[in-house]
Automatic annotation (TrEMBL):
<feature type="domain" description="Helix-hairpin-helix DNA-binding motif class 1">
    <location>
        <begin position="126"/>
        <end position="145"/>
    </location>
</feature>
<dbReference type="InterPro" id="IPR051675">
    <property type="entry name" value="Endo/Exo/Phosphatase_dom_1"/>
</dbReference>
<protein>
    <submittedName>
        <fullName>Helix-hairpin-helix domain-containing protein</fullName>
    </submittedName>
</protein>
<dbReference type="InterPro" id="IPR004509">
    <property type="entry name" value="Competence_ComEA_HhH"/>
</dbReference>
<dbReference type="Pfam" id="PF12836">
    <property type="entry name" value="HHH_3"/>
</dbReference>
<dbReference type="InterPro" id="IPR010994">
    <property type="entry name" value="RuvA_2-like"/>
</dbReference>
<dbReference type="GO" id="GO:0003677">
    <property type="term" value="F:DNA binding"/>
</dbReference>
<feature type="domain" description="Helix-hairpin-helix DNA-binding motif class 1">
    <location>
        <begin position="156"/>
        <end position="175"/>
    </location>
</feature>
<dbReference type="GO" id="GO:0015627">
    <property type="term" value="C:type II protein secretion system complex"/>
</dbReference>
<dbReference type="InterPro" id="IPR019554">
    <property type="entry name" value="Soluble_ligand-bd"/>
</dbReference>
<dbReference type="GO" id="GO:0015628">
    <property type="term" value="P:protein secretion by the type II secretion system"/>
</dbReference>
<dbReference type="GO" id="GO:0006281">
    <property type="term" value="P:DNA repair"/>
</dbReference>
<dbReference type="Pfam" id="PF10531">
    <property type="entry name" value="SLBB"/>
</dbReference>
<dbReference type="InterPro" id="IPR003583">
    <property type="entry name" value="Hlx-hairpin-Hlx_DNA-bd_motif"/>
</dbReference>
Length: 179
């Protein structure tokens, strides 16, 4: 009886590990965690959809799939700046705006309408959460940081907020201003 002991100490997270099965002498390829596609993801949709809420959808879904899963849009939905073809990722939150929303407050997906940037020093929790990539806990962290440290002096200061690193900042930077 042979025992196979696997050690991943020398494997980087973005590579495969190759082993031989001692009984069959066949190669076994072990894919690291980062390479395994998510079978399902959990995302939130709110605003002008028929059934807003949190949904579990296939990992390769697009925003359009999520809109359909939530029952479709209401008659008041404003899809002018909504990228329905956008790939969605685990943990994201989406807001489908209304035609009645003020022009400067409409921020959906990867586009802004008009000069619709959010002032970090005046933003509400809901306004922060309207930006793709900012969920409830990150919005709360931004507000807590602002309360503890005073007004933001620049958008780059967001990296000081818990759960916002350089990569996240690059994704959300264009949605904000500091006045």
């Amino acid at each position: 009886m042979a025992t196979l002991i696997l050690s991943f100490s020398g494997c980087s997270r973005d590579k495969e590990a190759l082993f031989l099965d001692p009984e069959t002498e066949e190669e076994i390829v072990v894919v690291t965690e980062d390479e395994v596609p998510l079978l399902s993801i959990i995302v939130e949709i709110k605003g002008e959809v028929l059934d807003p809420g949190v949904y579990t959808v296939p990992g390769d879904s697009r925003l359009n799939d999520l809109v359909l899963e939530s029952g479709g849009i209401t008659s008041s939905a404003n899809l002018r700046n909504v990228n329905l073809a956008m790939k969605i990722e685990d943990g994201q939150s989406f807001y489908i705006p209304s035609v009645h929303d003020e022009e400067q407050e409409i921020i959906v997906g990867e586009e802004t309408q008009g000069n619709g940037k959010i002032d970090l020093n005046k933003a509400t929790r809901e306004e922060l959460m309207s930006v793709t990539g900012i969920g409830p806990s990150t919005a709360d962290n931004i507000l807590a940081y602002r309360e503890e440290n005073g007004k933001f002096s620049s958008v780059d200061e967001l990296v000081q907020v818990n759960r916002i690193g350089d990569k996240t900042l690059e994704k959300i930077r264009d949605y904000f201003i500091v006045k």
